[in-house]
Amino acid sequence: MSKITRNTPFDYGYNVITTMEDKEENMMMDFGLLRLKSEQIETDNEQKERAFLLITGKAKLEWDGNSQVIERSSFLDESPWVLHVPQGMEVKITGIGEDTEISVTKTVNSENFTAKLYTPEECASEDRGKGSMKETSTRIVRTVFDYTNAPYAKLVVGEVIDFPGKWSSYPPHHHPQPEIYFYKLFPENGFGFSMLGDDVVKVTNNDTVKVPGGLSHPQVSAPGYAMYYIWVIRHLDDEPYITPTFEPEHLWVTESDAKIWPDKE
């Protein structure tokens, strides 16, 4: 079964990566990459909950009588803008920069919640893993919205920045809800590895990995290359994602007195 999708390069317009109709590894979500050149317009009014995350570039958003120009020059150094809208609400996006990329996640949700544009300042950002494991799993984790600030949503949206040669989604953990990872590498010829249970896949720039519910999924970037990925989770209708389950045999590494390197005799 295919858990990785390679899409390089992307065309201008909306590029489908996975859909709710996929027969293999159905993530219960549509996920794709919207690429716009200057003055190119994309309109979306699908009957689904949608999240539009600006990866890089500049665009004008119009929705529900609102208008906002958003810009992001670095996905490594800056938090994202994310527009989150309910089913049926029309969203118009006009490219302003020469090359703008926006991830688009959609899922079925009958709740007609109030649309919200999350600014970079509203994005929760933390240096996770800092001070433990001899900094081998120190990374930046950004959470735009989850069950705590958007309980009406069926989606959870965030980003991770992996420093070169370091791990994330660590210690290994799993959850019953499906998840999608979309990767950018810097420099672009870089690579990393994604574990999916007992399988390991090499990930490169613009790859997408589908994580079925129940599989542990730690990640690692190659030395010399920063690895960025968007992560989106789909709540199960009767079980929202709140916290993952960590593999107990590896939890010891997070203890303050963990012996990561043996003492010399």
Task: Give me the secondary-structure topology.
Blueprint: E1 4-6, E2 13-18, E3 30-36, E4 41-44, E5 49-63, E6 66-72, E7 82-85, E8 91-95, E9 100-107, E10 116-118, E11 124-128, E12 139-145, E13 155-162, E14 167-168, E15 173-174, E16 179-186, E17 191-196, E18 199-204, E19 207-211, E20 219-221, E21 226-234, E22 245-246
Antiparallel strand pairs: 1-19, 2-3, 3-9, 4-8, 5-6, 5-7, 5-8, 5-9, 7-10, 11-12, 12-13, 13-21, 14-20, 15-22, 16-19, 16-21, 17-18, 17-20
Silhouette: globular
* Mean pLDDT over all positions: 95
Assign the structural class, choosing from mainly alpha, mainly beta, alpha/beta, alpha+beta, or little secondary structure: mainly beta
Question: Class in CATH?
Answer: Mainly Beta
Number of separate domains: 1
Main sheet record: 9 strands, antiparallel
Number of DSSP strand runs: 22
* Gyration radius, in Å: 18 Å
Low-confidence stretches: none
Count of runs of 4 or more consecutive helical residues: 0
Q: What is the string of helix and strand elements? A: EEEEEEEEEEEEEEEEEEEEEE
Distance between the termini: 49 Å
CATH architecture: Sandwich
CATH superfamily: Jelly Rolls
Return the CATH topology: Jelly Rolls
Which percent range fits the helix content?
under 10%
Give the DSSP E fraction (strand runs of 2 or more residues).
Answer: over 45%
Classify the oligomer: single chain
